[in-house]
Structures are given as C-alpha cells and as structure tokens.
Amino acid sequence: YLSSGYAAVWATSNTREAIFDAMMRREVYATTGPRMQVRFFGGFDFTEGDISDLVKAGYSKGVPMGGELSGKDRDGNKAPNFLVSALMDPENASLDRIQIVKGWVDAEGITHEKVYTISWSHPDTRTMDSDGKVKRVVNNVDLTSGTWDNSTGAPELMTWWQDPNFDAAQNAFYYVRVLEIPTPTWPVYDAIKFGMELPADTIKIQQERAYS
Fold first, then answer.
1. CA distance 20 to 176
2. What is residue 73's predicted lDDT score, i.e. its pLDDT?
3. How far apart are CA 95 and CA 153, in angstroms?
4. Given CB 3.0 to 4.6 Å as the disulfide criterion, which of 62, 132, 151, 202 pairs with 198?
5. Tens of pLDDT along 4-15?
6. Cα(32)–Cα(170) distance, rounded to whole angstroms?
7. Full-prediction pTM beyond 0.85?
8. Sheet harboring 81-87: ordered strands across?
C-alpha cells in the first residue's frame, strides 16, 4: 500500500566514512516514504527555551537519537527531558502529530510500552483530553483525484517534553514517531490512472510516518 521506505542518516558530511560513523552511533531514522526531517535529543538539563536553537542545545547538553543517557549524568532522580522537531516533506503531506513511544521493564520483568502525543497541528482547536488523547486530524482526502488539503496539518512541529512517569529504578527506551495527515495509498492512484474500481476491502487512506 505504501512506497518503499527511506533510511535517513544525520552525518557530518556526505562521505562513506561519515555515514558509517553515524550508523555506528545509531543517529538514524526511517520513514514510510516521505522525506521528512526529524531531530530528537535526550538529556537532563534541557529547557523549553532550548527549542529556539534546538540542534546546538541538543548536542551540547544531551545526546542525539540513538544515544544513551546514564544515571550518572543527572541530579538525583531527575527525569529525562527531550527536544524534538519534525519538518514536513515539501512535496508530500503536512504533519499531524509527534509522539514519543516509551518502553520499560518492571521489577517482575514484564515489558511495558506507552505512547505520548507531545505536539500536534492546530492545538487551538485540537485539545488534549484528560487521558492524553488528541482529536483525530481532519481527513480531507479526495479519492476521485488522489489529492488532499495540507491546511489541516502543520509544516513543522517542535517541542520540549519531560517524562511525567519516570522511575529512576527502571531502564527505559524512548523513540519518536511522526505522523503526516491522511493521504491516499498507491492503489488509489492506480485506480484513477487506469479507471479501475478497487475492491471494497482495499485500504485507500493512510498516515505515512517517520520513526527515530
């Protein structure tokens, strides 16, 4: 239903050595096809003001995606905080939301996972409820033309976030998930081009995404 995905690498230069160095430090992310730009930094001393110079603050005060945070780097049981930004592919859809997925293992050895929505388009009309849920973005896909309206999303999203449920006694991992607004799947374009009628169970709309 989707095109081949992409792997993106934050390298210091476009050379074989620099690219492999970035892979070894795991400073990479993937998308389902669009060329979104995603930055993700973790630390213990970021502030909301660091968003204005996110990359500089990210490298100087924390670690980038793929990095590890150690308890020795924090003051007491201070929870980690994160800087995240996502920029849309200018030739694709605008952005719906940024989520952080947290995983951890409890004292009984049971694995848990929780998804936090931390930034989203049109927060003035799409508010978060008491359960941390945000209203779905408007689906304005036109299946007769294979088009959509980017105004329901945002060209860029960025934010500061701190884990509200951190337990210093547990190891945890965090990764970012960025969702675009709804767009047509490839079978829709084929159906339009060749004048075909798709089977009723065909998936016609999806939200493409990126994962750090």
1. 22
2. 59
3. 5
4. 202
5. 899 999 999 999
6. 31
7. yes
8. 62-64, 37-43, 81-87, 156-162
